[in-house]
Amino acid sequence: MPNTESFFYMKTNRILYSIILLSLLNVCKMNAVHDTMVLDVPWDNGTALSIKIDYEPMWKHVILEKADSSGVFVPLSVFFEGQTEYIDSDVLANAKQIYRISAYTSDRKDSLIVVKGGVATEQWFYMGKLSMLILLVLICTAIMYFISLARRGKALFIRRINGLDSMDEAVGRATEKGKPILFIPGIGDLDDIQTIASLSILSHLAQRSAEYNTDIIVPCKYSMVMSAAREVVKEAYLKVGKPDAYKEQNIFYLTDDQFGYVAGIDGIMLREQPAANFFMGSFFAESLILAETGFSTGAIQTAGTAQAHQLPFFIVSCDYTLIGEELFAASAYLSNDPQQIGSLKGHDFGKVMLIVLTIAGVIFEILGLHGFKNFFTVG
User: Fold this and answer.
1) Order of strands, edge to edge, in the sheet holding 85-88?
2) Distance between CA 357 and CA 133 in Å, rounded?
3) Secondary structure class of 24 (helix, strand, coil)
4) pLDDT at 137
5) Which residues, other chains included, contact 137 with Cβ-Cβ below 8 Å and sequence gap of 6+?
6) Would you give the distance in Å from CA 164 to the centre of its chain?
7) Which residues, in sequence order, are CB contacts of 2 under 8 Å at separation 6+?
8) Distance (Å, rounded) from C-alpha 220 to C-alpha 184?
9) What domains does the chain contain, in order, with CATH numbers?
10) In angstroms, rounded to a whole number, what is the distance separating the alpha carbons of residues 102 and 51?
11) Which of 142, 228, 242, 369 would staple 364 via disulfide (CB 3.0–4.6 Å)?
12) Are 139 and 346 in contact (CB under 8 A)?
């Protein structure tokens, strides 16, 4: 008869050995997907986390999931052989994110699940936009430098703009014929930068018309534009010492409706027969209607807009056309103000610099050197 104590001892040892063996197997199994880390991406705006997984070749299917707001895990990515990192760029700053890594063998008979969490934090400086900061500093420095040169009396070259040089000719012709000048500040409201640029041109044109005692008519689509235009023209008449010649009724509101506004202007052209028409600002489908009507009256026409799809209509229907940025350069060109001229030259420097950088980027890409492009890629 076997010893009961010895038998119990042997059974206990076997159970202990089994527990130790299973523990070792589980440890090995856990080590098969080890060093799983959820790290904050450095020098960013707190919207990205890096999930790094180091797994053994035995795991053929490694799936990454993220818990949504309700706690349900949603698949993010499947890790292929050799892939060890995934960047999750769709996270909330300073909020904990929970990830689950599920690993399976090729036959799906064995599996492993690891759950990890991490928090993305906002940094004081976003390195992904360092290139933009460098460009901004260079352009701002150039603007201040050219403004300083202009204030010290340095003559800065600005390319001749025929459309602006024609203003004196147009005003002179209107004076000879005894006809008014018609100025259209576009169909944009006062928050449109093209409307602001058109009012700068209106200021210069109003001064010339005041000097020659020629009426200037300014129909407006918005009441705010009308108020600003009245102040601009009134100030122009004050500058030339003829405040009594200013006629407030010549700057008026027509209508907010786009084609109602166009119809009203066409009626003014046919009734008043202005000797010069100026279309400056933002224009859309009405551009050709206005220009063709003005052409039929025999007026000298000058147009300017930054709407590229309307430029062809103005070019074929008007005598002079300000193309794109010429509209914004008009104020500096006409006023010769040192601050405006210096600012214009500084922006030109920025454009030249961007052209040079673009050419350099193309050359580096052809040579297979991608670091230059990556530096200027905003993350």
Assistant:
1) 33-40, 49-55, 85-88
2) 15
3) helix
4) 93
5) none
6) 29
7) none
8) 7
9) 32-119 (2.60.40.10), 127-146+341-375 (no CATH), 156-336 (3.40.50)
10) 13
11) 369
12) yes
Give the torsion sign (CA, 87, 88, 92, 94): negative
Tokens of 162: 């025929």
Phi-psi map region of 94: left, alpha, beta (phi>0 left; psi -120 to 50 alpha): left
**Splitting the chain (379 residues) into consecutive groups of 10 residues, what average pLDDT does each group show?**
50 50 44 66 81 75 84 83 80 86 75 78 77 90 92 83 82 91 94 91 92 94 94 94 92 93 95 94 92 93 92 92 86 81 89 93 90 78
**For residue 226, what are the CA distances in angstroms to 52, 187, 222, 233?**
62, 12, 6, 11
Q: State if pTM tops 0.90.
A: no
Tokens, residue 160: 């001749």
The residue behind tokens 């980027």 is: 361
**pLDDT score, position 318:** 92
